[in-house]
């Protein structure tokens, strides 16, 4: 999920690493009846080194026991945050478990939350961080699933995940088909890697989201205003005499002193627009920051009646627009452009390392389709950043080769079965996700009007009809895999 931890880098010529998953607390759904436990597993599944660590997982047995211990196991493959974030925001699993008498399990990804292989030292040196990878995490889940199947009647296992969690779910089915009967992979950009997607697609979708808002409530040409603001910011970046005014206009906590500081400001502004597009949910959510329903529309209102030829007026409106993301409650006293833009997620390190090693996702934009202007992906600058920060060079072809998703680009996933790939029509991560399938054993669809894995949230009356239909498709697929309700 997905934080724009270092989006600013992007602007000094390297690249933005945007965490695909997002966390927010739900207003509708509160997980209840879960029990926490530890599972002891190997730090390194690929040597005979005997070191172990405790990974956390939560289980809920109520529905399973109600069904006479005959139901399946629904297993959420945790991603890049404390696992409670996913319990809080994946109410659909609970909803579905109730009707299928499933045991629900949420596993915490190693190096996140409290599942730290080397405790507080886990991010302190390459010799500790090197066990943070999807294949190690998948092996953790394979051992945990084996244990759970032994404990619970050899129950069939369906895995679920959103965003990076959805990638893990799909890969879990691909790598461990004997342990996992099927996977629901929501907004899972498994094709976002080198050579499998157009890096410029990401910002193009964000820009399209904002252009849809154009026609709403009189905020005309929202994207033109944002583009004007970005043009001007890049233009004045070299002009020291504007820095004081920029600090004042954007109420930055610290004065802008260097060109690099202006990069940080630009990244901070871009993050707000990016996250509002990713989490453009139809009802109010309490993400990292509380936001209203349809934040894209709401932020565009800041430009209503603004004179687009008056650049400072446009910048002032931009300050208001990003306030929908950073300051919706009106309690922020200044914009901390050097701080993390992900709230107190505590997972920025882990994602940054993953994106520098196995999960290097090229993201960029071109002026023709991006309201943020030209921001080409620069692999060399990215490699330099990763070396400096973590002492590693991105393995850019890891996902394609390790999981076989790029074996035949004409028929992706030809030899794979029992995966549903759901996508949101508003979600920028679609650019690297599986949105259609010509393999009859793989279901893929795009839900109009939906942002990043809206379908995994607890059903809400404000959900677009395609999201409700998507959930029905997911349930039918699971029932088909389990061999129930078939006529
Ligand atoms: C899990 O293990 C950690 C230490 O690794 C410990 O602090 C924690 O209390 C344990 N939790 C449970 C539920 O046993
Ligand atoms: C999950 O939600 C509970 C309340 O329902 C809240 O106390 C907790 O802080 C949330 N945890 C995370 C990680 O979002
Ligand atoms: C990335 O993928 C492209 C297309 O498959 C390939 O030509 C290129 O060599 C790859 N880049 C690197 C650095 O391996
Ligand atoms: C806001 O945006 C969404 C998604 O683009 C759109 O479907 C909806 O009609 C808009 N609603 C309002 C009230 O502006
Ligand atoms: C818009 O701003 C431009 C540049 O500052 C100015 O010349 C023009 O008069 C303004 N238009 C209106 C309608 O205020
Ligand atoms: C400083 O910004 C204000 C709006 O915040 C604008 O009216 C003014 O023209 C700007 N001054 C300079 C010198 O750019
Ligand atoms: C936050 O909102 C309040 C209330 O509208 C406003 O007074 C304040 O200037 C805003 N601060 C920032 C940093 O946006």
Automatic annotation (TrEMBL):
GO terms of molecular function: dipeptidyl-peptidase activity; serine-type exopeptidase activity
Gene3D superfamilies according to UniProt: alpha/beta hydrolase, Serine carboxypeptidase S28, SKS domain
Signal peptide from the UniProt entry: 1-16
InterPro entries in the record: AB_hydrolase_fold, Peptidase_S28, Ser_carbopepase_S28_SKS
BP terms from Gene Ontology: proteolysis
Annotated Pfam families: Peptidase_S28
Keywords annotated in UniProt: Glycoprotein, Hydrolase, Protease, Signal
PANTHER family with a match to the protein in the record: LYSOSOMAL PRO-X CARBOXYPEPTIDASE, PROTEASE S28 PRO-X CARBOXYPEPTIDASE-RELATED
UniProt similarity note: Belongs to the peptidase S28 family.
Record-given protein name: Lysosomal Pro-X carboxypeptidase
Native organism: Blepharisma stoltei
């Amino acid at each position: 999920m997905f934080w724009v931890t270092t989006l600013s880098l992007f602007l000094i010529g390297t690249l933005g690493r945007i965490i695909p998953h997002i966390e927010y607390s739900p207003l509708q759904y509160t997980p209840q009846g879960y029990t926490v436990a530890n599972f002891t597993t190997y730090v390194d599944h690929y040597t005979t080194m005997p070191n172990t660590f405790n990974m956390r997982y939560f289980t809920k047995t109520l529905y399973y026991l109600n069904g006479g211990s005959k139901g399946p196991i629904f297993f959420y493959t945790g991603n890049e945050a404390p696992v409670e974030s996913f319990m809080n925001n994946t109410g659909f699993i609970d909803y579905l478990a109730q009707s299928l008498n499933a045991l629900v399990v949420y596993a915490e990804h190693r190096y996140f939350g409290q599942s730290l292989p080397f405790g507080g030292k886990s991010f302190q040196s390459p010799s500790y961080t090197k066990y943070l990878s999807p294949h190690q995490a998948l092996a953790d889940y394979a051992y945990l699933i084996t244990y759970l199947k032994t404990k619970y009647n050899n129950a069939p296992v369906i895995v679920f995940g959103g965003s990076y969690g959805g990638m893990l779910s799909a890969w879990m089915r691909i790598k461990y088909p004997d342990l996992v009967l099927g996977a629901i992979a929501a907004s899972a950009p498994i094709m976002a890697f080198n050579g499998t997607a157009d890096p410029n697609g990401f910002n193009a979708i964000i820009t399209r989201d904002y252009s849809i808002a154009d026609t709403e409530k009189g905020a005309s040409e929202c994207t033109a205003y944002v583009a004007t603001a970005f043009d001007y910011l890049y233009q004045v970046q070299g002009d020291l005499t504007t820095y004081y005014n920029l600090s004042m206009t954007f109420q930055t906590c610290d004065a802008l002193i260097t060109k690099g500081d202006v990069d940080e400001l630009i990244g901070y502004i871009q993050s707000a627009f990016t996250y509002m597009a990713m989490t453009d949910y139809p009802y109010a959510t309490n993400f990292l920051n509380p936001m209203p329903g349809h934040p894209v529309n709401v932020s565009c209102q800041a430009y209503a009646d603004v004179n687009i030829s008056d650049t400072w007026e446009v910048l002032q409106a931009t300050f208001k627009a990003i306030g929908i993301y950073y300051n919706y409650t009106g309690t922020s006293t200044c914009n901390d452009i050097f701080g993390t833009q992900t709230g107190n997620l505590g997972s920025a390190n882990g994602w940054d390392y993953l994106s520098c090693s196995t999960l290097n996702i090229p993201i960029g934009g071109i002026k023709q389709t991006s309201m943020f202007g030209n921001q080409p992906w620069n692999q060399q600058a990215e490699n330099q950043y990763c070396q400096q920060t973590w002492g590693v060079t991105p393995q850019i072809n890891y996902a394609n080769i390790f999981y076989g998703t790029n074996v035949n680009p004409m028929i992706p996933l030809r030899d794979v079965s029992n995966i549903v790939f759901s996508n949101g029509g508003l979600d920028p991560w679609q650019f690297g996700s599986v949105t259609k399938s010509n393999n009859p054993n793989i279901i893929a669809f795009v839900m109009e009007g939906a942002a990043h894995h809206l379908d995994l949230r607890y059903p809400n009356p404000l959900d677009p009809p395609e999201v409700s239909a998507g959930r029905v498709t997911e349930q039918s697929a699971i029932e088909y895999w389990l061999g129930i309700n078939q006529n």
